[in-house]
Amino acid sequence: MSTPTATFKTLDDLEPDQRVLVRLDLNSPIEDGEPQDNRRFERHAETVRELADAGHRVVLLAHQGRPGRDDFVSLAGHADILASHVGRDVGFVADTYGDDAIDAIEALESGEVLLLENTRMCDDELPEEDPEVKAETEFVQSLAPHFDAYVNDAYSAAHRSHASLVGFPQVLPAYAGRVMQTEYEANTAIANKEFDGQVTMAVGGTKATDVIDVMNNLGDTVDDFLLGGIAGELFLRAAGHPVGFDLDPEQDLYDTQWVQNHELVEEMLAERGDQITLATDLAYEAEGERAEIDVDEIEEKDVSFLDVGTDTAEGYADVVRDSGAVFVKGALGVFEDERFSVGTVTVLEAIAETDCFSVVGGGDTSRAIEMYGMDEADFDHVSIAGGAYIRALTGQPLAGVEALKEQ
Fold first, then answer.
1. Architecture of the domain whose range is 188-374
2. Helix residue ranges per DSSP H, 114-194
3. What is the DSSP letter of 231?
4. Would the pTM count as exceeding 0.90?
């Protein structure tokens, strides 16, 4: 049976010998027209392998890019990468619900795996519409009769009300795959779980609105918000420091966000100031090297700040070590440049060495774990979701999850 905490059926509830339609999220960076291997393939391979090993006939749906963009390509290359992780062949057909797709689906034997073409090449897929509307599309109505069950494993796309995510659960018995199950349970833990000790959240990244929404939703749960990134600099501006604005008006990283959010930021500092920890020093580039300055010594902003300073990073790490649970949303600096990885990496390393419950996610933050040689096993959960992770932290429903709950 499903775990007691599950709000939907999982693979544990699936009847044997099924023809199963499985939605994955294999959306990947594209270089020279070819998909690049990434953590999503490895994670989803667990679900695909489990289904195939159990003898189900497994048909996969996934998307890549959006129409009109350079990364909007076929999934032919994705099949080869996925096969290398699953450890068995993954067939591919350059069709989604036409005769070629149906013939390939009907020809499947027990334990065989087939990937269909990019769902976003179907006109029915993309418009955000109610699940009942999506269930009536030609896409869903053509494919569904050929299957016994539907599995949604695409948690990272679950905030989208697209046909392949919300339409099929209306017409087929629906289950959560292992990625969906583990992501949902980990990313809702901050709201649903009781922790023994302080709850800390390191929040950064480029979107102040996301940070504000997260802090508003979790203000009664989180004891200490450790701020960095562009959002952290905007909070410093609200606290009276001469930072948090654009040096180049064409860049527009700070000014528009300040206009849109400064009242909320100021209000949050006034109401929750004792829960908010701001950087005491910041890092910037000088003559090609990392340089740092205390926030209190900044008289005017004449350089771009690319990371929290070393003192701030070490102070944040001390907070982490005293915490019972730590959640990470967004990077504290431009960690892709090793010179400005100190804040993000110092906090992540402190989490890894501390016996606390930990979830890392939001955008590309989880990439820092691999980039800087940390072991993913030292974290309770490393999310592969971006937008869905933010929505979970802000308490917003996820269309794909809600569709599974309604079963």
1. 3-Layer(aba) Sandwich (3.40)
2. 131-135, 138-143, 178-187, 189-192
3. H
4. no
